[in-house]
Design brief:
Blueprint: E1 7-11, E2 16-23, E3 32-33, H1 40-49, E4 64-70, H2 76-79, E5 84-85, E6 100-104, H3 116-119, H4 128-137, H5 141-149, E7 153-157, H6 166-202, H7 204-220, H8 223-226, H9 229-247, H10 258-279, H11 283-310, H12 317-338, E8 346-351, H13 353-363, H14 365-370, E9 378-384, H15 396-403, H16 410-415, H17 418-421, E10 432-438, H18 443-458, E11 463-468, H19 488-498
Parallel strand pairs: 6-7, 6-8, 8-9, 9-10, 10-11
Antiparallel strand pairs: 1-2, 2-4, 3-5, 4-7
Helix pairs in contact: 6-7, 6-9, 9-11, 10-11, 12-13
């Protein structure tokens, strides 16, 4: 298996540096030679990122994070080429070091990635419509860039996913197929119209003749012949999907049968040629059979690869929280050794299920004690349309979709609900909370948020509550703009972090 690599990129126009694909399960090296942030990758990161993925890791390396660092000017004494840090007792520190936000993505505990678009074209899912949509918004890279652009370091992490119910996987396979086929059919139609317009502009006389011939051909077609357009669209969309998958085959490499997907189309074409040679079908029958065989082979190979990959996982919610805790431990150690951010100002942020995980991490002492951290190491919590009480998802259908991996034990659900654990906390060193809801969020999420804020205040904790106008549960992460404009949600988050 190819080793996991770490890449570094500095965008001076944006004034931040991105360190990608960092394995947070491997400890930092004991000795670190630090010169400046642009050389961290060359001198430090290769020591702990070039390792094989663990057997328990998922397809898109769920034990990794991307770190977005503002290009600040750290004191020369801390960045001298002769600086050697020998232990955690000699930590590099700068008074100008920015705070750190650790963002945890949502997805109902069973979907998502720190680079969300890659998830939509991988062993987890093959949905080209969502792939293009998330790639356009750079989800969740837009969040890391937004914080770093405003002088706040940000780490966007991935964590192991839970196993969905079988019927949920089958439904997602069907919807992904429909969405991808619809999108590709529309794109192919637009391409054909573009070439038609181009032909109109370049060769008007020829175009008039072609249009007349096409019009006459369509008029003379009977209803059965017009149905031939459907298999042609289906066939072309499947070939286009195969090309997309081939270009992104690295996202399928950790699946059980990535080569099966690559061989599906050649095998389908060979099967069709054998069928054509034996039966000698008509033109219309040939089109239908070719589209059906091609679609069947490609989609079956995708479904087998996805199901065999997803159902080899035996992760639990506790494993997800432990991964979040491990990433915080790694980041704290990295910040202490490099001085690239203030380790006394660590803020956890999460969306939906990610918000549930960060709140659970704060309220349950077990996870922090396992990595020798304390609740006082976390200064703030930003919960974006989060799940704070698992009983709020008790509707039958929602429960079957999202809570099936948690089991049916009511006491187990209470133990994994942050709202329940608030009353059990005896410590006075509790972070401040910023609870955010979308204006058009689901009603049970709004009620969950208001109940959680009320309970926090009841027990004497600092909690603020904000509602973002013109937003939904799914659109909140997109509110972190990819350009230089500042949105309402960004202003709220920036003020909260800098005010700690």
């Amino acid at each position: 298996m190819k080793p996991t690599t770490c890449t570094s990129r500095s965008d001076m126009s944006e004034n931040f540096t991105v360190l990608q694909n960092i394995d947070y399960h491997k400890p930092l090296p004991r000795y670190m030679h630090i010169k400046d942030v642009s050389l961290i990758n060359n001198h430090v990161l290769h020591n702990f990122t070039e390792n094989k993925r663990s057997k328990s890791s998922d397809g898109l390396a769920k034990d990794q994070l991307d770190l977005y660092l503002p290009n600040m000017k750290v004191k020369q004494s801390a960045l001298s080429s002769s600086t050697v840090i020998k232990s955690s007792d000699n930590n590099v520190k700068s008074s100008d070091a920015p705070p750190l936000v650790v963002f945890v993505h949502g997805g109902g505990w069973r979907r998502g990635d720190r680079q969300q678009w890659k998830y939509c074209l991988s062993s987890y899912d093959t949905n080209l419509m969502l792939f293009i949509l998330f790639r356009f918004h750079n989800l969740y890279q837009n969040i890391g860039k937004s914080f770093a652009r405003n002088g706040i370091a940000c780490a966007v992490i991935s964590y192991p996913l839970l196993q969905p119910a079988l019927w949920v996987t089958l439904f997602e396979l069907f919807t992904s197929f429909c969405m991808s086929t619809l999108l590709l059919t529309i794109l192919l139609t637009l391409v054909m119209l573009f070439f038609q317009l181009l032909l109109t502009w370049c060769l008007p006389l020829t175009n008039i003749y072609i249009i007349n011939q096409i019009y006459i051909f369509i008029i003379q077609m009977n209803s059965l012949q017009r149905l031939h357009i459907l298999p042609i669209c289906l066939m072309l969309s499947q070939l286009a999907m195969y090309c997309f998958i081939s270009l992104n085959i690295s996202n399928y490499r950790n699946g059980p049968h990535p080569n099966g997907i690559l061989l599906s189309v050649p095998t389908a074409l060979s099967t069709f040629l054998i069928y054509f040679y034996i039966t000698q079908p008509t033109f219309g029958t040939s089109l239908w059979m070719l589209s059906v065989i091609l679609t069947g082979f490609l989609q079956t190979s995708i479904a087998i690869n996805q199901m065999m990959f997803v159902y080899k996982s035996d992760n639990r919610c506790e494993d997800q929280v432990k991964s979040v805790a491990k990433s915080v431990q790694w980041l704290k150690s990295f910040g202490q050794k490099t001085g690239q951010f203030d380790t006394d100002k660590i803020v956890l942020s999460g969306h939906s299920a990610g918000a549930h995980l960060i709140n659970l991490l704060v309220w349950d002492d077990i996870y922090l004690k396992d990595i020798q951290l304390d609740r006082s190491d976390i200064k703030g919590i930003i919960s974006l349309s989060g799940v704070h009480n698992l009983h709020s998802l008790s509707f039958p259908l929602i429960r079957q979709i999202y809570l099936a991996p948690f089991g049916k034990d009511i006491k187990a659900l209470e133990k994994l609900s942050p709202a329940t654990l608030v009353s059990n906390c005896k410590s006075e060193k509790v972070p401040q909370f910023m609870i955010v809801s979308a204006e058009h969020d689901y009603d049970f999420f709004k009620k969950d948020a208001t109940d959680y804020v009320e309970k926090l205040k009841t027990f004497g904790h600092v909690a603020k509550y904000e509602i973002i106008p013109n937003s939904t549960h799914l659109s909140l992460p997109w509110a972190f703009a990819s350009d230089k404009r500042t949105t309402t949600l960004e202003e709220i988050c920036f003020c909260f972090v800098k005010g700690l």
